[in-house]
Specification:
alpha/beta; 294 residues; binds adenosine-3'-5'-diphosphate; Rossmann fold; 4 strands; single chain
Length: 294
């Protein structure tokens, strides 16, 4: 099969990143990032499983050893100044050149904004997870409420600002997802769906391990599948958060909230749901992407 064409790089997507978190300087640093051949980039729209995918990759890297933490990981997201470990601010990770490889590096930027070395020089690999946008925006609502002063006060407000607006962060869910989905046949990319990962976590871990070129023993695989269940991750994140300041604990609680498919049903009104479905049909027409909403 012919290689998938590379995305147009660094196109102006209208300045719709996350203005308070992503500066021009950050974007430039990501673009110029020194990617290593075996880097694993976790490139996911916010609230779609970034921490889940990162934890799976880190556990694969350490063959199921949950005490890993030699490098910043989701477990360490809470263990320092959050701005240094935020997935978006990847350029500000500490001592990234000293991390043990394969480095697992998370980011929320759209595909066009990935480092040049990934897109032009074929270095590194990219794992993207796509989650249905209705659950994504519900997750975002609770997350923002917990961490951001001035967060949307109602779910309806959040749905507009982060779900249906042309100015929703990171090129909108639609633009972001279509960008990564368009790369799904490229050898450097593995694009998974959150709902498939929930239904068959074992299958997803095997696929990711193969993609990383690190096949697992049956024992390590069993261990990892247990460790990446949402309740198990919650317990470990809570422990990590408890030793930290209050603000970080709050973040931990909201990052690992329910981890289910279909939570949107108790949040969208009938009218909101109909309007969203119409927008979804319009934006996703011809994409070939089928998502599960319940
Ligand atoms: P909910 O708020 O719907 O529970 P991100 O890491 O991109 O911020 O995404 C956070 C969302 O992923 C949260 O969704 C969180 O619960 C869910 N998540 C995290 N770890 C998970 C896991 N192991 N299994 C299922 N969902 C998980």
């Amino acid at each position: 099969m012919a290689e998938t064409p590379r995305p147009a790089q660094y196109v102006d997507i209208g300045g719709t990143m996350w203005p308070t978190m992503v500066t021009e300087k950050t974007l430039k640093a990501i673009r110029d990032f020194d990617v290593w051949d075996d880097d694993m980039w976790i490139a996911v729209y916010p609230k779609s499983g970034t921490h889940w995918a990162s934890e799976i990759c880190n556990l694969i890297k350490y063959s199921g050893n949950s005490q890993h933490g030699h490098n910043p990981s989701p477990m360490e997201f809470f263990s320092g100044n959050p701005s240094q470990h935020s997935p978006t601010l990847v350029s500000e990770y500490n001592n990234v050149s000293e991390w043990e490889s394969p480095r697992v590096i998370a980011t929320h930027v759209p595909v066009e904004y990935l480092p040049r070395k990934i897109l032009d020089e074929g270095k590194g690999k990219v794992l993207s997870v796509i989650r249905n946008p209705k659950d994504t925006v519900v997750s975002e609502y609770y997350f923002l409420k917990g961490v951001k002063p001035g967060a949307p006060e109602t779910f309806s407000q959040c749905l507009v600002e982060n779900g249906t607006s042309e100015h929703a962060p990171y090129n909108t869910w639609f633009g972001h997802v279509l960008g990564y989905w368009g790369q799904r046949h490229h050898r450097q990319f593995l694009v998974l769906k959150y709902e498939d990962m929930k239904r068959d976590t074992r299958g997803a871990v095997i696929q990711i391990a193969d993609f990383m070129g690190r096949p697992l023993s049956d024992e390590a695989l069993d261990k990892i599948v247990d460790l990446v269940q949402v309740d198990s991750m919650k317990t470990r994140f809570k422990t990590a958060g408890e030793s930290q300041e209050k603000e970080n604990k709050k973040g931990a609680k909201n990052i690992l909230r329910k981890g289910v498919v279909g939570d949107w049903k108790t949040h969208f009104s009938v009218a909101e749901n109909e309007a969203f479905d119409a927008l979804y049909r319009q934006k996703m027409a011809g994409s070939g992407l089928e998502l599960q909403f319940e």
